[in-house]
Amino acid sequence: MITPTGTGVDLSVSVVPRRPAVAISFVLPSGLVPSRSSLPGALRLRQWVATFVAPPREGIAWRATFDGTAASRLNDLRVIVTDSGFPGGSGWQRLPDWPPACARTCPKGLTPIYLAQGKGLGFEAPAAQAWDSYVSDPARPVTYRQRPTISPWATGSTWRFWLEDDQRFAEARPDVLTYQSAPLTQPLALRGTPLVHLVASTSGTDSDWVVKLIDVYPPQDREKPQMGGYQLAIAMDVMRGRYRADPARPQPLAPNQPLTYEFALPTVNYVVQPGHRLMVQVQSSWFPLYDRNPQTFVPNIFFAKADDYRAAMQKVFTGAEGTWIGLPVVK
Fold it and tell me: Are 309 and 155 in contact (CB under 8 A)?
């Protein structure tokens, strides 16, 4: 994702490999060097390159800042991956554009997958308009990991692997909505930036909306029995409702009115295998990764009082005019 700043641009790229024997390289256009980078790199034939060999299972994320640089200078950024799980087989792949699919300005657009009545998920727009609901209570927030949640710095902490946590712990909660597709019959390659188009209402005047795109493994896996039914997150993010219209000017939400929230999920490079299912989870807290929303609009949440924190009825609307996720599907 490329984000213009007052002095240049910020770049954020995430790659999650499906198999261990993989190398990932980020190659910048000739003459372009980041001002700050989360990964070490070096100039090779006048091109700045950062290469990761055998990255960890949870993948890698690269964030960089380019001072005094126009966003168009990053149009020729190359991400080179090798992984036998990607379409085209094993070997190096050169991607002419990154991301290849997104909502705007990419070579390819997005493919919507719709939330449907009965907790279904499919590529055909459902005819029936419906909604599902849950109660979000700030006193009982949904945690970002299965409890007990220990400090990232505690002995035995597995915090560095939290992005690959099994999401079944969240599915079991009554304040998390879960929508699931039928098993896939062929590989589904996702390369680019997914987009959330959420139509939802709250009985409060502020709300958080957490959306997760998940790869659900088959119930039984002969090669890796521990992965049977595993719910592996592909991309997850949160939208704070007060910033729905303008990220610089928070505004209260109209209670009990369906509103549209659109926000991007982190960029992905992932293949969902045949026999797996796609899942979408929707919830309204992600604690303590994201601070609790009082669900009552206050000028500054840091100064919210105890009686500002109130339970709220949340509704997610489905159907052709309801909620969908734009997937960066590539052939």
Answer: no
- pLDDT score, position 137: 98
269/15 Cα distance (integer angstroms): 5
Number of Cβ within a 10 Å radius of residue 248: 5
Between CA 286 and CA 29 the distance in angstroms is 37
Q: What are the tokens at 192?
A: 């680019």
Cα distance between residue 11 and residue 42, in whole Å: 18
Which residues, at least 6 apart from 82, have a Cβ–Cβ distance to it below 8 Å? 22, 23, 90, 91, 92, 93
- What domains are there in the chain, each with its CATH number? 2-94 (no CATH), 111-330 (2.60.120.260)
Confidence of residue 22 (pLDDT cuts 50, 70, 90): low
Give residue 21's pLDDT. Answer: 45
How far, in Å, CA of 60 to CA of 53, rounded? Answer: 11
CB–CB of 186/193 below 8 Å?
no
Question: Token pair for residue 232?
Answer: 């592996």
Q: Quote the pLDDT of residue 18.
A: 57
The residues near 60 (Cβ < 8 Å, ≥ 6 apart) are 14, 15, 24, 39, 52
- DSSP character at residue 170: H
pLDDT in tens, 247-279: 999 999 999 999 999 999 999 989 999 999 999
pTM for this entry? 0.75
| Stated length of the chain | 331
pLDDT in tens, 42-62: 877 668 888 877 677 667 788
Closest CA to 227 of 280, 159, 170, 276: 276
The pLDDT score that the predictor gives to residue 268 is: 93
CA-wise closest residue to 285 among 130, 119, 174, 132: 174
- DSSP-derived secondary structure letter, 141: P
What was the pLDDT predicted at 82?
Answer: 60
* DSSP run (H or E) holding 270: strand 268-272
DSSP-assigned letter for residue 128: -
